[in-house]
Amino acid sequence: xxxxxxxxxxxxxxxxxxxxxxxxxxxxxxxxxxxxxxxxxxxxxxxxxxxxxxxxxxxxxxxxxxxxxxxxxxxxxxxxxxxxxxxxxxxxxxxxxxxxxxxxxxxxxxxxxxxxxxxxxxxxxxxxxxxxxxxxxxxxxxx
Amino acid sequence: xxxxxxxxxxxxxxxxxxxxxxxxxxxxxxxxxxxxxxxxxxxxxxxxxxxxxxxxxxxxxxxxxxxxxxxxxxxxxxxxxxxxxxxxxxxxxxxxxxxxxxxxxxxxxxxxxxxxxxxxxxxxxxxxxxxxxxxxxxxxxxx
Amino acid sequence: xxxxxxxxxxxxxxxxxxxxxxxxxxxxxxxxxxxxxxxxxxxxxxxxxxxxxxxxxxxxxxxxxxxxxxxxxxxxxxxxxxxxxxxxxxxxxxxxxxxxxxxxxxxxxxxxxxxxxxxxxxxxxxxxxxxxxxxxxxxxxxx
Amino acid sequence: xxxxxxxxxxxxxxxxxxxxxxxxxxxxxxxxxxxxxxxxxxxxxxxxxxxxxxxxxxxxxxxxxxxxxxxxxxxxxxxxxxxxxxxxxxxxxxxxxxxxxxxxxxxxxxxxxxxxxxxxxxxxxxxxxxxxxxxxxxxxxxx
Lengths: 143, 143, 143, 143
Prior knowledge:
The structure is a homotetramer.
Chain A: E1 14-19, H1 33-52, E2 61-72, E3 81-91, E4 95-103, E5 112-122, H2 133-141
Antiparallel strand pairs in A: 1-3, 2-5, 3-4, 4-5
């Protein structure tokens, strides 16, 4: 993620927009640090549901977060609409790492960047599971 | 609820304390209006779980919110700890109405007051169910 | 608000759409009762900012919530997009009552309906202030 | 942070307890990944306010988050009460890194661990500022 500060939204193959809510701002008048992870979650969940076909309520094997990280470069503030970009950064045996960046209005550089690591877990045995080939191909398409 | 502004925490037979969180405040520097309902929910859920024995994840018949109301009398602010009081205001055939008040630190009068109406619902048929006698007695104890 | 269950989104002169977030759902798999008030807040804040010109961070006299109410008719669930409708229900001397309804996807009837009462308050004296004529006219346009 | 999985709450010189809220759980029945950062924030904010004397609303120079990270080892669930431990991991010229771990009920090992990096920033110039000696001494006491 070196050079994260130079990235543009167009560098990310998967993108969504998320309107901020009044309550995302904290008493300092900016989007609260915790809320950034709501935006991370929004794009990862959407990607897994729509591109990979994950259904967390039904699937016996489903992705679980094992690590998230965010670097805060500059403030975002309600009522801005956030552009969120995702790129598959690394595909492991049973894990996938998504690189994510948040962009505010009127700026090329990301306001925040980070990653979100999912591991495939069997809900019964709680053991990690290998990523199937068809899923791997989807991840590769967005890497 | 006339005279709500004159109530004290000791007027309520069921009470909990809830520490505020940084993120409960909004950009105006006070607890956000929406977060008051988090405190309402905290006491209603705790009461139903601990006094009535409700288990929302297992019970086939469980209480569902049909109406909530809050009147905001004066601001609350992080890092205050909130005292929350609950009283059973009305027991219907299948519904129970909880009167709730929130008290900040260093003040006798409630910062907010309102109610929360639960209806017993069968998860399969989605029809309302009569309150059983043993539950009714619990509600009466707190009325 | 009699007949709220028969209302359609087209009955409301001011409307927005709000995408749900994963975290809006609670462990019962539906949008949590508290989150409904986030949608109420979203439309009231947007209306006051865009139609009335309120700036809560700068204005000396600004609207403060004194009462909110919500009736829950049927569940909403992530990833639904919510349509929110607002109508000015009552204009008092210093207060305005907004009637609000939430509509899920694929249904004419509201999933929830309620109101949000704002009172104009002077930030210094904390006293309520009369609604100016130009604001009153805006409210009348949406009543 | 090697060996994080072996840490106990007693390894951390600063500790608080945080009751979970119903809404911290998501539809999978566990505390949502995002909410872990609420617990991180709770202890960092409390530490900075009570031990260091930070007042974010008044101070011209105040700590701002530049990076947070969380590793999720095992689930937490409402209605558990969380024990949160904090240790000063690294003191830089203008930054301080807090190591944080979350512990659920009835378990020695942390449910999650991570860090939170604060940088001292001048609100006007937006430039980072060196940590004063008296603050540095406080940080050293908790390292």
